[in-house]
Amino acid sequence: MSGTSNNANTTEGLPAPRPRHHKGIYDALVIGGGLVGSAIAYGLRQKVEHVAVLDEGDTSFRASRGNFGLVWVQSKGMGMPAYGHWTMSSQQLWKTLAGMLHDLTGLEVGLEQNGGLHPVLTDEEYEERIKFMKGLLSQPGMVQYDWKMLDRKELADMVPGIGPEVRGATWTPVDGIANPLKLLRALHTAFDKQKLDYLPLHPVGDIEKKNGVFELMTPYGIIRANKIVLASGLNNQKLGEKIGLAIPVRPQRGQIVVLERTRRILNTPFSTLRQMDEGTWLIGDSQEEAGYADGVIGLPVLATLADRAVRTIPALKEVRVVRSWSALRVMSKDGFPIYEQSASHPGAFVATCHSGVTLAAAHALRIAPMVIEGALPDAMSPFSTRRFHVQQAA
What we know:
The protein is α+β, with helices and mostly antiparallel strands.
């Protein structure tokens, strides 16, 4: 992701800049080369010719490299039905995005939309999950989709080897998975195919607007664009100040345990346990308020994740752990995405969320056209930062 840097105006110690296809004013430019920024940049390139991505580097906090990879709808939207609709719209566009990327690059992104499961291990969890799903879908204006509370027998018929402690699971047909690393590779390969300028080691130190054109200060000089999108994750808070937007985001640490490859047996993913297309197992879903300690692995948390996974599928006791990692989610004050155009700097947009995989299709195929058109429609107003000001005044 991109952001502010102490050496934003000097090239001392930096390698030579990557060659640029376009030397003039870009039609649109994205700050941040992770999944959110890359998806938006790819979408922008489908609409205009001259697009650039300014990225900071691999030493930055990068949520994309730690993503669990769910394309998930169930559980999204409690307290904001618009988020349920937005998530569903992205799920419906995902097959189109995957097809477009494959046609252009020849790369598969591991998309599987076979439905999804959320396991419950006790009678209390069983009843609470039913209550939650009914409450979620009964909200006025909430998107509707099929779901079912599977009992233990129904779940066992779907998932071989389910553990004796598992009480059941909620199931929906609208959930799925993708491979985050394959997705990021496909997007960046598309950049090369379509001559989109990806410029790493280009942290943005300042942003100004002169004569209707944005000027972005980087270690390699000023880069200009007619429209810009802030998609730099946690650094959006600092960069937002440059365009008159207060963007309240915070880091939330998540940890993942990776098990060795086995024969593929789990075709319908759980919300906390999935098997990748090549057979690797991922265990995840921890949520920790730990500041910027993204490289810290907490053994108690990993033990809790592993214990629940083994109780779900006991055969995993015999599968070896090969690695684990932690990464930082980009969380807004209320956990929902932020999409907004700056009132003081028209043409400058912000895109912030913690669901870079789920929302990749919406970012590429819906947000990008909105940026080119120069306005977000009224349906996107729930995602603006104005919602935080209303809460403060209440």
